[in-house]
Design brief:
Layout (H helix, E strand, L loop, with lengths): L3 H14 L6 H11 E3 L3 E4 L8 H10 L8 E2 L4 E4 H19 L6 H14 E3 L7 E6 L2 H13 L5 E5 L2 E7 L1 H10 L3 H51 L7 H12 L5 H5 L8 H18 L10
Antiparallel strand pairs: 1-2, 2-4, 3-4, 5-6, 6-8, 7-8
Helix pairs in contact: 2-4, 2-5, 4-6, 5-6, 7-8, 8-9, 8-11, 9-11
Length: 299
C-alpha cells in the first residue's frame, strides 16, 4: 500500500509540473530550479513517482524552454550543461535586478516551484504541518536564501548528511508557500482541511470540557449522597429537623436533579436559594458530627 504522504506529494508535484508559463524568463527559472548539473550534462530532477514520458512531453510543450533538447540517460531526462549555465546567468541577473528594486517576483516564484518539485517535501496535512527543501552547494544555498527573503517566506535551516535543509512548520506559513509557488488547487484543499481540523479540535475541546464537568458533578453528587445517608442513619435523634430530613431524602431519591428542580418537588415548592441553604446546612452538620471524616467536603 502506497503511503498517504507519497500520494499527496505526487499529486502536488504533478500539478506544478503541468502548470503553464506565459513568459520565457519564468520557464528558464523553473528549469533552473528543477535541474541539477552533472559532469557533462544537466538532468531534470523529476521524482520517480511521476516520471512519465507523457508528462515529460507535456512539460516540453508548455513548461520548459522551447529550444530545450532533452534526452533520457540512463532513464533520467538530461540536457546540455551549457544551456543550464546560460539560464543560471540570466536568473542571477534577474535576481540582482530585484534586489536593486527592479522587476517583479514572477521568475523567483517559478524558480522556487522548480526546486520544490526536485528536492521538496510537504507532509500530508492530515498528519501535520511540515515542509522542507534539501539544498546542495553553497551557491544554491545563498541563492535560495535570497529568493525566500524576496518572497517573504520564513524558512529555518539545518544541516543533514552534508546538505543544507530549509524547512518551515505551521499551517499559515505553509499556505503562504503554496500561494507563492502558485499551487492554487492544493492551497484551497489545504485551507479546507485546516478549517475542518480546527472545527474538529474545537468540538473535541468542548466535548471534553463538558464531559469533565459532568464527571465532576456526578462524583460530587455521589459523595454528597453518601454523606447524607450516613447522616440519616447515624445522627442522634433530634439533631436533624423534619425539613432537613425531607431535604436529605429528596436529594438521595433524585440525585440527578439540579438544585432548582429539586426544590420544586416540595409542597409548597422551595426556591433554589432555599434548597441550597438546606443542603449546606446538612453538610455543616455532617462536619460537626463526623469531624474525623477524611472525605472531600462539599460546599
Amino acid at each position: 500500500m502506497i503511503p498517504r504522504t507519497v500520494l499527496y506529494q505526487a499529486r502536488l508535484k504533478r500539478e506544478l509540473l503541468e502548470g503553464k508559463f506565459s513568459q520565457s524568463c519564468c520557464r528558464n527559472a523553473f528549469l533552473l530550479g528543477l535541474s541539477v548539473s552533472r559532469k557533462s550534462n544537466a538532468c531534470l530532477g523529476i521524482p520517480s513517482s511521476i516520471r512519465e514520458q507523457t508528462l515529460l512531453d507535456r512539460m516540453l510543450g508548455h513548461s520548459l524552454p522551447r529550444n530545450l533538447r532533452v534526452e533520457n540517460w540512463p532513464g533520467t531526462p538530461t540536457f546540455d550543461l551549457g544551456f543550464r549555465k546560460l539560464v543560471w546567468g540570466r536568473f542571477t541577473r534577474a535576481l540582482s535586478d530585484h534586489v536593486r528594486g527592479i522587476g517583479s517576483l514572477h521568475c523567483l516564484k517559478s524558480y522556487l516551484k522548480g526546486i520544490f518539485v526536485r528536492a521538496g517535501y510537504l507532509q500530508d496535512p492530515q498528519s501535520g504541518y511540515h515542509l522542507e527543501i534539501r539544498l546542495r552547494g553553497r551557491n544554491r544555498m545563498k541563492l535560495f536564501r535570497l529568493v525566500a527573503k524576496a518572497l517573504r517566506l520564513q524558512f529555518r535551516f539545518f544541516s543533514q548528511l552534508g546538505k543544507a535543509v530549509a524547512y518551515m512548520k505551521g499551517r499559515r506559513r505553509i499556505i503562504r508557500f503554496l500561494h507563492a509557488i502558485e499551487a492554487f488547487h492544493q492551497t484551497m484543499e489545504f485551507e479546507d482541511l485546516v478549517a475542518t481540523r480546527n472545527m474538529l479540535e474545537l468540538v473535541n475541546r468542548q466535548v471534553n470540557f463538558e464531559t469533565a464537568n459532568i464527571n465532576r458533578s456526578v462524583s460530587a453528587a455521589e459523595r454528597q449522597i453518601d454523606k447524607l445517608r450516613r447522616l440519616l442513619t447515624e445522627a442522634e435523634p433530634g439533631v436533624l429537623s423534619d425539613a432537613l430530613i425531607d431535604s436529605a431524602r429528596a436529594r438521595i431519591r433524585f440525585p440527578e436533579d439540579p438544585i432548582g428542580k429539586l426544590g420544586k418537588r416540595f409542597h409548597p415548592p422551595l426556591s433554589k436559594s432555599a434548597m441550597n441553604h438546606r443542603l449546606r446546612r446538612l453538610m455543616d452538620l455532617y462536619r460537626k458530627i463526623f469531624p474525623d471524616s477524611q472525605d472531600e467536603l462539599e460546599p
